[in-house]
Design brief:
The chain has about 350 residues and is an alpha/beta fold. Helix content is about 50%, strand content about 10%. The chain has a 6-stranded mixed beta sheet with strand order 1-4-3-2-5-6. β3, α2 and β4 form a beta-alpha-beta unit. α5 runs antiparallel to α6, α6 (about 205-215) packs antiparallel against α7 (about 225-235) and α7 (about 225-235) packs antiparallel against α8 (about 240-250).
Length: about 350
């Protein structure tokens, strides 16, 4: 699953494996073995005849996975937009065929799923074992270019994937740059494992130094900032926290995912430790970057508006989010809107 950042998790960071069994950027794509195509079969698979005419997105997903379901409309949009340019999207699930078939027919809300791309049932987990050997969660996707080379890997909902796909299809993707980025990510995960050890031994000085190294490597990842903030709190150096938060906010200002991490981590922080100015600015900036068209960002904005007493604004924002929500999220968004309206009634003294 997509990593969710929580402040409470700082002292129990999970060390991440840095094994390289799964295909890395620059590697040739492994074979794809399919027990059954649950939708249509693609015209060619990576490494097979005519594969050099296509660019591939190979996604690993499951019907029970909420983030996977939420990402289906995004993949459907990419399929419709780029199919004419040779893009083939393959979704591989290792669930049993009746489960996948039922999901395709009834989805999460009783309606047939809009999955116009190529959905596959894995062949006795053979494809997962090769492609996802050391990947800890789903959804996870790979982009394979016309030379059968893996050029990108990661969470398919990240803007990074769409940006990379645009460049690959346009013939402007730099594999060496991507390999360098992958090496940076590997180093980051190695430092994360070291941070885990330092946190377990309560070596705050070492943890702070590692956090600084991680910030330098990936300034738009919130985890090292939270680690550094934890150290500053533990060592009674709270006066340095505003400067750290200013650094973090500046680093995230053009990253929707980074801003989302700030908002989520702040909303999970005790009220007395929140930075309301940073929280509100981050939400408004994320709304600006997404042009007010991302229902999840709008819902987060509504949540913080409600927490700040802006109940009318929260209702209006949640109504906008509901209007943009996918079928998967619509019921949940309706419940949130109902809560805000009931809260407004209570604040007006009308009772429950």
């Amino acid at each position: 699953m997509f990593r969710r950042v929580t402040v409470s998790g700082i002292c129990c960071l999970i060390a991440t494996s840095v094994a390289v069994a799964a295909p890395q950027v620059g590697d040739k794509a492994p074979k794809i073995k399919v027990a059954k195509w649950m939708t249509t079969a693609p015209p060619a698979l990576p490494g097979e005849k005519d594969a050099d005419k296509h660019v591939y997105v190979v996604e690993f997903w499951a019907t029970w996975c909420g983030p996977c379901r939420k990402n289906i409309p995004h993949l459907a949009d990419l399929h419709r937009k780029y199919q004419k340019d040779g893009l083939i999207i393959i979704g591989v699930s290792n669930e049993d065929q009746p489960t996948i078939e039922k999901f395709l027919k009834k989805g999460a809300g009783g309606k047939a799923m809009d999955m116009p791309y190529h959905v596959a049932s894995d062949d006795d987990n053979a494809t997962n074992e090769v492609w996802m050997a050391d990947i800890p969660g789903i959804p996870h996707a790979f982009i394979v270019d016309k030379t059968n080379t893996v050029v990108w890997a990661g969470h398919p909902a990240l803007p990074d994937m769409t940006d990379a796909l645009d460049k690959v299809l346009a013939g402007k993707f730099d594999v060496q740059t991507a390999k360098n980025a992958a090496a940076t990510s590997k180093k980051f995960e190695e430092l994360m494992a070291q941070a885990n050890a330092a946190a377990q031994s309560q070596d705050n000085e070492k943890l702070a130094k590692i956090a600084d190294q991680m910030i330098a490597l990936k300034p738009q990842d919130i985890m090292p900032y939270l680690m550094k903030r934890h150290v500053l709190t533990e060592t009674k150096r709270e006066a340095e926290i505003p400067s750290l938060e200013t650094q973090m906010e500046a680093a995230m200002k053009d990253s929707v995912d980074g801003l989302r991490q700030i908002i989520e981590s702040q909303l999970e922080t005790e009220l007395g430790n929140r930075s309301p100015g940073m929280l509100y600015r981050s939400a408004r900036r994320a709304e600006e970057l997404t042009k007010g068209r991302d229902p999840d960002i709008l819902s987060l904005l509504g949540q913080l508006q409600c927490s700040m007493g802006m109940i009318d604004a929260a209702i209006a924002t949640q109504e906008r989010a509901l209007g943009l929500a996918t079928d998967v999220d619509r019921d949940a968004f309706k419940k949130v809107l109902k809560y805000y309206k009931e809260a407004k009634s209570l604040s007006a003294g009308n009772g429950p």
